[in-house]
Amino acid sequence: MSYASHAQTSRPTAFQSVLSVLGDVKSRLAQRRSYRQTVNALSQLSEHELADLGLSRYSIHSDAWQAVYGTRQNG
Q: Residue 45: which of 59, 32, 33 has the closest Cα?
């Protein structure tokens, strides 16, 4: 006995593509907001508090970037 199967791959509709792009934008905005909040929170800590966390004032932006995006910021 043989079976025939027709697998049809459907391309996303224009509406689905727009929703996908909007979802990506929303996600990026949320990450950016989280980055800014992290930088602001760390910037308000004293040198002693930063040292307790193993951070320096110089590395706040880089450390916040890594915390939010998971990679080191270039530059």
A: 59
